[in-house]
Write a structure and sequence with these properties.
Radius of gyration: 20 Å
CATH architecture of the largest domain: 3-Layer(aba) Sandwich
Number of helices: 13
Order of helices and strands: HEHHEHEHEHEHEEHEHHHEEHEEH
Structural class: alpha/beta
Shape: globular
Helix content: 40-55%
CATH class of the largest domain: Alpha Beta
Largest sheet: 7 strands, mixed
Bound molecules: pyridoxal-5'-phosphate
Oligomer: single chain
Number of domains: 2
CATH topology of the largest domain: Aspartate Aminotransferase, domain 2
Length: about 350
């Protein structure tokens, strides 16, 4: 089958699997099921007239508000058209230079590097080593790399690289003139793991953020990046004018100050994750040790039957995310979103049926 690059496309998957009439719950997109915050629709409606004017090309007031929230200087932050634009700007910054990517990881790092002609060295982490970074290999490779892309928290495993290892790489990177681009698209789900405080210490650190996941706004397109003022200035020079639309610009500070919504989400996640992990332990399924709103799943008793499990879930109305385009996984696991209690319970009931069958 011609597997799509990204999750969250239930209609396309139904078409590919010739089951257009089937009702499916979409566990393939890793968005917050509690979102968006209730006030968002009213706020977008109230602000719709912003669409009648060009946004401020410098996004001054939202940038200043974000800088204040993140405790960085105004010129150390750049608003972007989703996390995806931040990834492509980062690749553009290193155009023609050499990159490393730690896999499995979001596929757009590779695409962005290809687009800007960066030769890429792949570093593969695997389940056998609990997806730990190959630190010796990385430290040895840094002198030959201009930039290393890391996804933390990681998509698709949901796991978080220990801060001490990041610091070790940054220290060595300072010495070797190597940058670390760290995609924190999911860090809002584990706020204590944010690396923002390290920006002051390490001028070779570039952080990428997305508001898409926590606030369930994939259609609004909103993200930002943080780095030194010199790096941000250059990134900005590559950005398409008015790249961030006027509504996204108006809404950004309101979203990031909604700590109540984030708190509710973190609480929901904690409860659901415990329930899922304990199901996995009791029924012999591997679940990655996730800190965020999705996880990898494999049937420990039938590790080679992942594709059959995918079809079984689909026939029972659950759309999982395949892992065929994640280097190091090549389809061996499924990625599943953590959804509402009711939806997760439905998933567990179907997994139980699978267990009774195989
Ligand atoms: C790790 C990671 N970074 C960035 C993005 C892109 O986010 P956005 O929708 O804000 O462009 C995604 C989307 O799936 C992602 O998984």
């Amino acid at each position: 089958m011609n597997w799509p690059e990204h999750g969250g496309q239930p209609d396309l998957m139904k078409k590919l699997l010739q089951a257009e009439e089937l009702e499916v719950l979409d566990f393939s997109a890793n968005l917050n099921p509690l979102g968006p915050p209730e006030w968002l629709q009213g706020e977008l409606e109230a602000q719709w007239k912003k669409l009648l004017c060009y946004p401020d090309p410098n996004y001054t007031s939202s940038t200043n508000a974000l800088a204040w929230i993140e405790r960085v200087d105004d010129d150390e932050i750049l608003l972007t058209n989703g996390g995806a634009e931040a990834i492509f700007l980062a690749a553009k910054y290193f155009e023609g230079k050499s990159a490393g990517i730690v896999h499995p990881a979001f596929s757009e790092y590779e695409r962005a590097c290809r687009h800007y002609h960066l030769p890429v060295t792949d570093f593969i982490t695997s389940r056998v080593d609990d997806f730990r970074l190959p630190m010796n290999q990385l430290l040895e490779a840094l002198p030959d790399l201009d930039v290393l892309f890391l996804c933390r928290p990681n998509n698709p495993t949901g796991m978080v690289i220990p801060k001490a290892e990041i610091k070790m790489l940054l220290e060595q990177g300072l010495h070797d003139h190597t940058f670390l681009v760290i995609d924190e698209a999911f860090v809002d789900f584990v706020p204590s793991e944010s690396l923002t405080p390290l920006l002051k210490e390490y001028p070779n650190l570039i952080l990428l953020r997305s508001l898409t996941k926590m606030f369930t706004i994939p259609g609004l397109r909103l993200g930002y990046m943080m780095a030194t003022d010199a790096v941000i200035k250059e990134m900005k020079s590559y950005q398409v004018p008015w790249s961030v639309n006027a509504l996204a610009n108006a809404i950004a500070p309101l979203l990031l100050t909604d700590k109540h919504f984030v708190g509710q989400t973190v609480h929901w996640l904690d409860e659901q994750t415990k329930k899922l992990q304990s199901f996995g332990e009791m029924n012999d399924f591997y679940l990655s040790n996730t800190s965020v709103n999705f996880y990898l799943l494999q049937d420990n008793r039938n590790p080679l039957k992942t594709e059959t499990l995918f079809s079984f879930l689909f026939q029972h109305g659950i759309l999982a995310r395949h892992t065929h385009n994640f280097k190091g996984l090549e389809g061996s696991h499924l990625r599943l979103a953590i959804r509402s209690d009711e939806e997760n319970s439905k998933l567990l009931t179907i997994l139980k049926k699978w267990r009774e069958r195989v």
